[in-house]
Automatic annotation (TrEMBL), chain A:
PROSITE patterns in UniProt: CLAT_ADAPTOR_M_1, CLAT_ADAPTOR_M_2, MHD
Protein family according to the UniProt entry: Belongs to the adaptor complexes medium subunit family.
Mode of membrane association: Peripheral membrane protein
One CC-aspect GO term: Golgi apparatus
Gene3D superfamilies for the chain: 3.30.450.60, Mu homology domain, subdomain B
Domain MHD stretches: 176-417
Name of the protein in question: AP-3 complex subunit mu-2
Lineage, uppermost ranks: Eukaryota, Metazoa, Chordata, Craniata, Vertebrata
Automatic annotation (TrEMBL), chain B:
Residue ranges annotated for the Clathrin adaptor alpha/beta/gamma-adaptin appendage Ig-like subdomain domain, each copy included: 716-826
Occurrences of domain Beta-adaptin appendage C-terminal subdomain (ranges): 835-948
Disordered, as annotated region: 592-625
InterPro entries named among the record's database cross-references: AP_beta (IPR026739), AP_complex_bsu_1_2_4 (IPR016342), ARM-like (IPR011989), ARM-type_fold (IPR016024), Armadillo (IPR000225), B-adaptin_app_sub_C (IPR015151), Clathrin/coatomer_adapt-like_N (IPR002553), Clathrin_a/b/g-adaptin_app_Ig (IPR008152)
Membrane-topology descriptor: Peripheral membrane protein
Species of the source: Equus asinus (Donkey)
Protein name listed in UniProt: AP complex subunit beta
The family this protein is said to belong to: Belongs to the adaptor complexes large subunit family.
One Gene Ontology cellular component: clathrin adaptor complex
Protein origin, superkingdom: Eukaryota
An individual GO BP term: vesicle-mediated transport
GO MF, one annotated term: clathrin binding
Subcellular location: Endomembrane system
Assigned keywords, A-Z: Acetylation, Membrane, Protein transport, Transport
């Protein structure tokens, strides 16, 4: 199972190590550093690195490498999933997951890690349970602790750990009972030069924030459950019920959680809400090129597209760009060659555009790769797949909860080739 | 007020200061001090000197302080074992605490203290905790057994903890079950032989119940454990699959992949006609696609596994090509894997899309990725014939970009396309030649040289081109040198008049000025060939090459099957069996897919089995491990060498005038200018003194029919056995055996007259039998057989008699008549007399056939105590017409792939696993695959007879 964990920052310092079995010397990370050196970018460091006696599995999040050391045959996905869970837990505990924050809270981090694994076997990974065992630091609690001498370690057995619903703690009490659900869909798409869609798929999630007293039993039904044929559920969802009735029935965890994630890939179901018109040319003879892009709405179901940001990695040969946007602001970083244009809202009457010239390195040959345009945008109050929640009911408790459902569509990996 | 304050005091007296604080009377101060110690520990500072002071803080009611001290103990106990004993009492006391959290914490921490002396004290508390009333304590104790086993395996066995652990599999709490399974699996991994996870339908049922209720991690442990079980029949397999499929919708990708493993394995047992089989196939696709929208690290592992899955069952993802399209900001390791799978899924239906994508990728920034994309275009051309033309034109477009590495990569793949489709796309050669100068990588240069040599007759200035390479001959890499040598010899054979000087130059460069033995040897061989028999040389060097395969990198079917059992593990990421790389994996048990044990399926009978050549629907495959070019180079010299030149090796080998008359025949009517003086013979020492002699005697041996029974050549012949005792046949005793010599089968009989009268008028007849064996000539006993006299007769047999399936298959019923009576007896003939001489299958055919024959036809046997090495086995079997098609060394074991053909045209394919040099493992493992599985048993017996005698 998982032997050790090293946290390494992007400059290659090991700033935390935790061993769940015997101590593995940190020199094992040298193999990781080698791989890191070979990879041009941090993102390209291979996730599985073999060394003579160990295997290093790593994830790169928030500019930190989380490197797990294993010695025997362990499912790598198990390790990587666990590392993601560590990242999520840190974020949950400290708001952000960064090197300074981890260093500031090193003892809590250490205690949490100790609770998450025992001898490399996962012990408590649900944040509900962890928070009962080790209270997350808050300014108030730190002050109180110093005055009263109490601790941030709970001395009760976390009851949830043994119940059939380990994700929920008992004795939850709220004065305002509320349950909010966010249906968030991200469109991943590749659009080719001519504007036709090569691939498009929707990654959807339903995130919930449930603050309900007691042990509520919820059911959530959809207007069009047929859309959901590829779904992953939170363990709380009763799979049998879904199989037979297409209804989500569950006792929710307390607080924020992801109820389900789904995937819609049938091409005809994926509407593409924006288009990009582009005209980028690097002329052979002169050292100037032309650059023009226009963004416009396509299938938006009458909703406004906002938060549009266009980014593009220019070829190495580009020295500078002098561009003028019809709206928003743009920047070009001559070092990383990254062009970024913060467009904002798209007004269908007056389409935003960015025009100008590209100056190329004198004498250098024409760049042979065309820049790909990356698009970010948001559409409020719309699930692009058309998924709609029908109703939410609560059983098992007497009070009347406050319910709310929000829809949102975002660009995921939305790429336009030029 | 953050923890960073603990790092601030890094002055000289730090340890001293901490010591004082740890011994402070104030609780709060103590705790702060311990926190400082822990903080120092986490960043790797040595604070072991504070051990006694920290341990003193252990006796406390403060849970946080206690936990902190435990953290410290786990880290440093090993370096201070004597001190650690001090902590034992507290642990034992805590194990009795009314609070289960404290009990669990104590037993958990004790297990982490890797000190022998402590483990002794651990046993009693652990035993109690394993039977604790609180499941939380039990589940912690289960893991503790695994910890203890890691420290002292013997102790765990002696104390009977393993049995307790096994009992926990039936615990009422799913979490306890999951942890027990996890602990047992880990222990079992270090003891592969022990039968710890002894699964039966009852325990499987318990696991399946727990599967629904335990945590995601527990589900992974249980699923991985389930995957080791082999259901007894297809019904059980189906019911397990049904209960596992809901796991495919789990949010945890590791759960999903473990579930996929179980399903892929058990699916093997389901009949393809079953409706459920189709349903299951459909259910597998969406979760695999979903894995690809996860984080890149997860994607990578998923893609490596999908790579295996599409090779095993391409139908699952055949419609999902688009999800493997590459996004420009995917990490490089994801890009490369996606590309690989794209090619595997490429088919006529989607090739246009794939090519458009590949062309797009070829203009990206990342050099490695671009190269692989170009290579992929070539692989598409070879895989999908209809697309070849389009691929070639795409490659030409790419060559026009003049981007150096794109051009080089394109030329390498175009060479492969030429190999696959000869005489089809040679019109592009001119374009290729234009780019000659820009080639600076050995592989591209070698490919270009190969093209020039291969098509020398169509390239007007081929000699100039090759000459230009020759100038810097010694600076080239070996790959290029070898290729250049071959290319120039090809050129010479095609255009002998103009290129004579060139060939001499290259031969002398290769043989005299090079210290590379491969190059020298090849140089000498060509030289010798050219000088002795140019016609033969032509046949050898310009021999028709076998077409190359469409997939050069398919994983071998047996390895693939094994890897399918390891889906989701490191083995699946590396595409190697765990024994090949996992530390301490000595004697790892080989996993294999379960055979299909359908209760109602009828077995193919030999009569209905398609006799003769195996069907050719499967792709032809050459399993080249290295690069294709190496293969090409070898092929030039490969099979033909043993052919024509030996047959015509009548030419005398003189020291001088090596090229003499031979070349004349090649040159026809242009006698002048070639020959003797210009061609200096290679140093005699390097030439094998007499090629002809040993071969000749070998041949004569081979044809020596008279040498009779038991000579070196021919199949193994068993000693004669008594078939018909005298008592039963009124004094006639018949003993005999079967032989096979150079294609003819005979029955060697010894007839003995034990009666008192003379015997005459012998005749013999066979009943119909499985292989149509019949006497080819009448039984001729020339003189009457007097009493107490015996005669030896060899009766030639053929296999054109009438056929009837016998039981056992190799049963032969014989009737012998003489002047006294007719006698009947039956005997079993060894199957190897039916193995024909042309039973060697070529490698492509072998692979295709192996894949084609359904797995349920595979039979496995063990040949015990056979301490032979691969060569000995191979040659011994070859003399009985069992031919070795290929040999590989996998993880220190030799794998022989063999083929044989029976007289009725049934092919039998075999895989023989040998562990050479291991005196403890003299058993050979034999897997046989045949369309008529009934013969397997007899083929196995034949193997055993041949190898043991």
């Amino acid at each position: 199972m998982i032997h050790s964990l090293f946290l390494i920052n992007s400059s290659g310092d090991i700033f935390l190590e935790k061993h769940w079995k015997s101590v593995v010397s940190r020199s094992v990370c040298d193999y990781f550093f080698e791989a890191q050196e070979r990879a041009t970018e941090a993102e390209n460091v291979p996730p599985v690195i073999p060394t003579p006696h160990h295997y290093l599995l790593s994830v790169y999040r928030h500019k930190i490498f989380f490197v797990a050391v294993i010695q025997t045959e362990v499912p790598p996905l198990f390790v990587i999933e666990f590392l993601h869970r560590v990242v999520d837990t840190f974020q949950d505990y400290f708001g952000v997951c960064s090197e300074p924050v981890i260093k500031d809270n090193v003892v809590v981090v250490y205690e949490v890690l100790e609770e998450m694994l025992d001898n490399g076997f996962p012990l408590a990974t649900e944040s509900n349970i962890l928070k009962e065992l080790i209270k997350p630091p808050t300014i108030l609690r730190t002050v109180v602790n110093t005055i009263t001498g109490s601790t941030n370690v709970g001395d009760q057995l976390p009851t949830g750990q043994l119940s059939v619903v380990p994700w929920r703690r008992t004795g939850v009490k709220y004065t305002n009972n509320e349950a909010y659900f966010d249906v968030v869909e991200e469109i991943d798409a590749i659009i080719d030069k001519s504007g036709s869609t090569i691939t498009a798929e929707i990654q959807g999630v339903i995130d919930a924030c449930v603050k309900l007293t007691g042990m509520p039993d919820l059911t959530l039904s959809f207007m069009n459950p047929r859309l959901l044929d590829d779904v992953s559920f939170h363990p709380c969802v009763r799979f049998k019920r879904w199989e037979s009735e297409r209804i989500l029935s569950f006792i929710p965890p307390d607080g924020n959680f992801r109820l389900l994630s789904y995937h819609v890939s049938a091409q005809n179901l994926v509407a593409i809400p924006v288009y990009v018109k582009h005209n980028i040319s690097f002329r052979d003879s002169s050292s100037l090129g032309r650059f023009e892009i226009t963004v416009g709405p396509k299938q938006t179901m009458g909703k406004t597209i906002e938060g549009v940001i266009v980014t593009s990695q220019m070829p190495k040969g580009v020295l500078n760009m002098s561009l003028s946007p019809s709206q928003g602001t743009h920047t070009f970083d001559p070092v990383t060659k990254m062009l970024s244009w913060d467009v904002g809202k798209i007004n269908p009457q007056k389409l935003p555009s960015l025009k100008g010239t590209v100056s190329l390195q004198a004498g250098a040959s024409r760049p042979d790769e065309n820049p790909t345009i990356n698009l970010q945008f948001k559409i409020q109050q719309l699930a692009i797949s058309g998924l709609k929640v029908n109703r939410l009911d609560m059983y098992g408790e007497k009070y009347k909860p406050f319910k709310g459902i929000k829809y949102m569509t975002k660009a995921g990996k939305f790429q336009v080739r030029t | 007020m953050t923890d960073s304050k603990y790092f601030t005091t890094t002055k000289k007296g730090e340890i001293f200061e901490l010591k004082a604080e740890l011994n402070s009377d104030k609780k709060e101060k103590k705790k702060e001090a311990v926190k400082k110690v822990i903080a120092s520990m986490t960043v790797g500072k040595d604070v072991s000197a504070l051990f006694p002071d920290v341990v003193n803080c252990m006796q406390t009611d403060n849970l946080e302080l206690k936990k902190l001290v435990y953290l410290y103990l786990m880290n440093y106990a090993k370096s201070q074992p004597d001190m650690a004993i001090m902590a034992v009492n507290t642990f034992v006391k805590d194990c009795e605490d009314p609070n289960p959290l404290i009990r669990a914490l104590a037993v958990r921490t004790m297990g982490c203290i890797r000190v022998d002396k402590i483990t002794e004290y651990l046993c009693e508390p652990l035993r109690k905790c394993l039977k604790d009333e609180d499941p939380y304590v039990r589940k912690t104790a289960a893991v503790c057994v695994a910890k203890l086993h890691d420290i002292n395996a013997q102790l765990v066995e002696d104390q009977g903890f393993l049995d307790t652990l096994k009992d926990l599999i039936s615990d009422s709490n799913p979490m306890v079950v999951a942890n027990a399974v996890a602990a047992l699996s880990e222990i079992a991994e270090s003891h592969p032989s022990s039968n710890l996870l002894d699964l039966n339908p009852q325990s499987i049922n318990k696991l399946l119940t727990a599967l629904n209720e335990c945590t995601e991690w527990g589900q992974i442990f249980i699923l991985d454990c389930l995957a080791n079980y082999t259901p007894k029949d297809d019904r059980e397999a189906q019911s397990i699959c049904e209960r596992v499929t809901p796991r495919l919708s789990h949010a945890n990708s590791a759960v999903v992949l473990s579930a996929v493993k179980v399903l892929m394995k058990f699916m093997e047992m389901l009949s393809k006609d079953l409706d459920y089989y189709g349903t299951l196939l459909k259910k597998l696709a969406p979760p695999l696609v979903t894995l690809l929208s996860a984080e890149p690290e997860l994607q990578y592992v998923a893609l490596r596994n999908i790579n295996l899955i599409v090779q095993k069952r391409p139908e699952i993802l055949k419609h999902e090509m688009k999800v493997f399209f590459v996004k420009y900001n995917d990490p490089i390791y994801v890009k490369l894997e996606k590309l690989d799978i794209m090619i595997r899924l490429a088919s006529q239906a989607n090739i246009a899309q794939v090519l458009a994508e590949l062309k797009e990728y070829a203009t990206e920034v990342d050099v490695d990725f671009v190269r692989k994309a170009v290579r992929a275009i070539g692989r598409c051309a070879i895989k999908v014939e209809q697309s070849a033309e389009r691929c070639v034109s795409t490659l030409l477009d790419l060559i026009q970009t003049k981007v150096n590495y794109v051009v080089q990569e394109a030329i390498v793949v175009i060479k492969d396309i030429f190999r696959k489709y000869p005489n089809k796309y040679e019109s592009v050669i001119a374009t290729l030649c234009e780019n000659l100068d820009s080639l600076d990588e050995p592989e591209a240069r070698a490919a270009m040289i190969w093209i020039v040599g291969e098509y020398a007759e169509r390239i007007d200035n081929a000699d100039e081109l090759l000459e230009s390479f020759l100038e810097g001959f010694h600076d080239e890499s070996t790959q290029v040198q070898l290729q250049l040598l071959t290319a120039i010899v090809k050129l010479f054979l095609k255009k002998p008049t103009e290129t004579q000087e060139l060939v001499q130059q290259v031969l002398s460069l290769a043989t005299q000025d090079s210290d590379n033995p491969d190059l020298r040897d090849r140089g000498y061989i060509y030289w010798r060939l050219l000088s002795t028999d140019p016609v033969a040389a032509k046949e050898v060097v310009l021999a028709e090459k076998p077409l190359i395969s469409e997939e050069t990198d398919l994983i071998e079917p047996t390895l693939l099957d094994e890897l399918i059992c390891y889906i989701g593990t490191l083995a699946s990421v590396y595409h190697k069996p765990p024994s090949a790389f996992v530390e301490g994996g000595r004697g790892v048990v080989h996993k294999s897919l379960p055979p299909r044990t359908a209760s109602n399926e009828s077995v193919e009978s030999p009569e209905t089995a398609p006799a003769g050549a195996p069907s050719n629907e499967q792709p032809d495959v050459i399993p080249t491990q290295g690069d294709l070019l190496g293969d090409l180079l070898n092929l030039d010299l490969g099979p033909p060498v043993s052919g024509p030149p030996l047959a015509t090796s009548s030419v005398q080998m003189g020291a001088v005038d090596l090229l003499g008359g031979g070349l004349d025949s090649l040159m026809g009517d242009e006698p002048e200018g070639i020959g003797g003086p210009n061609f200096v013979a290679p140093p005699a020492a390097a030439v094998p003194a007499n090629l002809g002699a040993p071969m000749g005697s070998g041949l004569s041996d081979l044809f020596d029919l008279t040498s009779g029974v038991g000579t070196l050549s021919g199949s193994y012949v068993a000693p004669k056995a008594v078939w018909l005792p005298a008592m039963k046949a009124k004094g006639l005793e018949i003993s005999g055996t079967f032989t096979r010599q150079v294609g003819s089968i005979s029955m060697d009989l010894q007839l003995t007259n034990k009666a008192l009268q003379v015997m005459t008028d012998f005749a013999i007849q066979f009943n119909r039998n499985s292989f149509g064996l019949a006497p080819a000539a009448p039984l001729q006993v020339h003189a009457p057989l007097s009493p107490n006299q015996s005669v030896e007769i060899s009766l030639p047999l053929n296999t054109v008699g009438s056929v009837m399936k016998m039981e056992p298959l190799n049963n032969l019923q014989v009737a012998v008549k003489n002047n006294i009576d007719v006698f009947y007896f039956s005997t079993l003939y060894p199957l190897h007399i039916l193995f024909v001489e042309d039973g060697k299958m070529d490698r492509q055919m072998f692979l295709a056939t192996w894949k084609d024959i359904p797995n349920e036809n595979e039979a496995q046997f063990q040949i015990r105590d056979c301490p032979l090495n691969a060569e000995a086995v191979s040659s011994r079997l070859q003399s009985s017409n069992i031919f070795t098609v290929a040999k590989r060394n996998v993880e220190g074991q030799d794998m022989l792939y063999q083929s044989l053909k029976l007289t009725n045209g049934i092919w039998v394919l075999a895989e023989l696993r040998i562990q050479p040099g291991n005196p403890n493992f003299t058993d050979l493992e034999l897997s046989l695959k045949c369309r008529a599985p009934e013969v397997s048993q007899h083929v196995y017996q034949a193997y055993e007879t041949i190898l043991k005698n």
